[in-house]
Amino acid sequence: MSSTSDFLDPQDLSLLAKHQVLAKRVVEGFCSGLHRSPHKGFSVEFKQHRAYTPGDEIRRLDWKVFGKTDRFFIREYEEETNLRCNILLDASGSMGYKGDRAISQTKLDYASRMAACLAYLILRQTDSVGLTVFDEKIRSQLPVRGGPSHVKNIIDILASTKVGGETDLGSVFHELAPKIKRRGLLVLFSDCFGDLESTIKGLAHFRHARHDIVIFQIWDRDELDFPFQNWTRFECLEKQGLKHTVDPKHLREAYLKNLKAFREGLTKGCHRNRISLVSMVTDQPYADGLGAFLAARNKIRRPARI
To answer: Which of 32, 96, 136, 172 lies 20 to 30 Å from 200 when distance is taken between CA atoms?
Structure first.
């Protein structure tokens, strides 16, 4: 069991405290908060009048209009609702990589702390958040809830999560999409390794359900610049016993070419589906990258209808 102070750096939280997590698009929910909903409510901003019908609440009658027209009309409002955020954490084997420049943490460690910080901020602003941990299948899941006590539940799951088996992003996304009934913000923490076409199709399934999606793609610096010089043994983190000892100098050019193609393909797929893709490297403070992202996102105050 881990406390908030054990798992989150108070200095990081203080740097991020001024930010609020605002969905760019219309989100769905029932509680009052900071986010505009397409549903008609009772309390915030006037939307329109409609004719009274038997069964409507008398207290919603507009008596001023009645005085002018001698007819009953109901006042309808556009409510402000809470943000519903689902955090998806990839805990597959490749997330267990840690290079010498990664500030003594694996990609999973980095992603978990970043996810915890984001969850803390969302709950702090009285919104709701849920958590799903997966590799080739869903391993653990917390439903979307609000309240300050919920952050401990999330941190307990994150702190106990260990890297697992192979990656199957597309399959997991297709399984999850029908289970997330109300549209909202989906935040994925993953290196996105796996079959690119399957991953994009899975993400498109979420977008078809009108979720607002943000991907924090987690990298170790070694994966980006392939610094290996001497003969090196490479072991697969997702398939036990698969390893090769090679001269990396002969692989570097091909590796970087394939890496470029992979990143370009993912970027194009995200752009096509209107998904925000943010690259994070484990040797940079996560609070800096998360803070810059939230600051840019918070400039969008009036979400457009999807």
So the answer is: 96
CB 164 within 8 A of CB 135: yes
Name the token pair of 171.
């399959």
Are 1 and 158 within 8 A, CB to CB? no
Same domain, 192 and 77: no
Query: Does 302 map to a domain?
Result: no
As a whole number of angstroms, the distance between CA 57 and CA 204 comes to: 41
Sign of the CA dihedral running 115, 117, 120, 126: negative
Average pLDDT over residues 240-259: 84
Q: Are residues 155 and 239 in the same domain?
A: yes
Cα–Cα dist 186/177, whole Å = 11
CA nearest neighbour of 13 among 255, 290, 303, 297: 290
Using alpha carbons, select from 247, 285, 248 the residue that is nearest to residue 13. 285
Assigned domain for 186 exists: yes
Distance CA 222, CA 217 (A): 15
Q: Give the global pTM.
A: 0.77
Separation of alpha carbons 80 and 76, rounded Å: 13
Length of the chain equals 306
Please indicate, yes or no, whether residues 94 and 77 belong to a single structural domain of this protein. no
147: left (phi over 0), alpha (psi -120 to 50) or beta: left
Predicted local distance difference test score (pLDDT) of residue 42: 45
Domains of the chain: total: 2
- Write out pLDDT tens, residues 5-52: 556 666 666 655 555 554 443 344 333 344 555 555 444 455 677 787
Q: Which pLDDT tens digit goes with each residue over 75-126?
A: 765 444 578 999 999 999 999 998 877 677 899 999 999 998 889 888 888 8
